[in-house]
Amino acid sequence: MDIHSLFKEDQKNIRLYKQNKISAKELRIRNKTISDKFLRILKEKGFPCKKGNVRTKEYQSAVVLTLHQPIRKIKKIYNELKTKGYCLDKKDEAYLIDKIRIRERKRQIYGTQYKILNDRIKFLPIKNRKQVDKLRKEMGLETLKKYKEIAEKNIK
Fold it and tell me: Does residue 128 lie in a domain region?
């Protein structure tokens, strides 16, 4: 099985859970299976790179699957990507950094992490709200306001 196939399975399981078709316990079991397969592929083949500036399906799928890992695995993958000089897109690095910080109960830097409450986006705590758009721009991200608009369109 390839990384993109695992990603599609991951997304299908999330949809089934949100539709109350599988339990939280079943979702955890399925996530663990996907995680084990994903980590095995990374160990055997390494993290898939972009092709120049093009974010391939395999690359994008690997980023999402990384974000869905337990915190210690996210940190391990991120540290390997940074120390081995893999082709990590700045946007994706911002998501990984924020995910790690939130899971460590710290404020996020780039405002990539949020909760959905009553079909509205509520950002998880941001370290420096006044500077967040400047920091987001440095990582190639849109403004927080634009990101919120896009995210809210996607949940409706």
Answer: yes
